[in-house]
Amino acid sequence: MFHVLRKSRAGGAILSDVNNELFFITSNEHKFREVSQILKAYNVNIKWYKVKYTEIQADQIEEIAFQSAKLLATRLNFDFFLEDTGLFIETLNGFPGPFSAYVYRTIGNNGILRLLQHVENRNAYFKTCVAYYDSREKTIHTFVGVMEGRISYKIRGEQWGFDPIFIPKGYKKTYAEMGSEKNKISHRTKAIEKFALWYVKNIKKT
Ligand code: ITT
């Protein structure tokens, strides 16, 4: 998806033109590691940029990612992207979804397993929405990736976030047990690959 923020100023000198750099804004080191790895295959190098900002609350992670990028675009004069991710559990009507970070911090994986105690329907999916800000065109582009799967009955593996309780469709292991194999198939990989293909075609200068 593509949104114009405001018209570009002809000839306006901007940092991204000078440096030709791409920044990934996140507070999460696991995300940064995964995304850097995925983008290597596309020859896209990124720099980690940490900045505090107030994330809006919304029902859709696409809206959260877009509004976050829009807010940061008023403060940053270079090309960047960020991403928002949620875990959506079918039997809980999509909860925690856009509230995933809060739920992880509060009840955590044990809390989710308790909510699903004696529940047979374990269907769930992860969704990531990447929002990229093009500082020259003043536009925001979004890219979505989804991975369906199910919630395990126990915590399995020691990776980050919900990885120890999520089993992707077609697999028996949790994301946490899969190690680096997660990065070949994950929700984040799908969203970042869509972004990378578009970025290499439309933006990246060699
Ligand atoms: P940002 O600074 O990039 O926003 P965050 O950790 O707050 O980092 P999100 O809001 O996108 O990121 O993530 C919501 C929650 O989902 C958060 O608690 C993560 O631990 C968890 N999460 C995100 N991606 C995940 C993944 O691939 N595997 C497991 N858990 C994940």
Written account of the structure:
- By secondary structure, this protein is of the alpha/beta class.
- The chain has one domain: Maf protein (Alpha-Beta Complex), CATH 3.90.950.
- Helix content is 33%, strand content 23%.
- It has eight helices and seven strands, in the order E-H-E-H-E-H-E-H-H-E-E-E-H-H-H.
- The chain has helices at 15-19, 29-40, 61-73, 100-106, 108-115, 175-178, 182-185, 187-202, and strands spanning 2-4, 23-25, 47-49, 80-89, 123-134, 139-151, 166-168.
- Strands 1, 2, 3, 4, 5, 6 and 7 form a seven-stranded mixed β-sheet that branches.
- Helix 2 (29-40) packs across helix 8 (187-202).
- The longest helix is centred in the C-terminal third of the chain and has 16 residues, at 187-202.
- The chain is globular.
- Residues 6-18 have low confidence and may be disordered.
- Inosine 5'-triphosphate (ITT) binds next to strand 4 and helix 4.
Features:
binds inosine 5'-triphosphate, alpha/beta, about 210 residues, Maf protein
List the helices and strands and how they pair.
Layout: E1 2-4, H1 15-19, E2 23-25, H2 29-40, E3 47-49, H3 61-73, E4 80-89, H4 100-106, H5 108-115, E5 123-134, E6 139-151, E7 166-168, H6 175-178, H7 182-185, H8 187-202
Parallel strand pairs: 2-3, 2-4
Antiparallel strand pairs: 1-6, 4-5, 5-6, 6-7
Helix pairs in contact: 2-8
Bound molecules: inosine 5'-triphosphate.
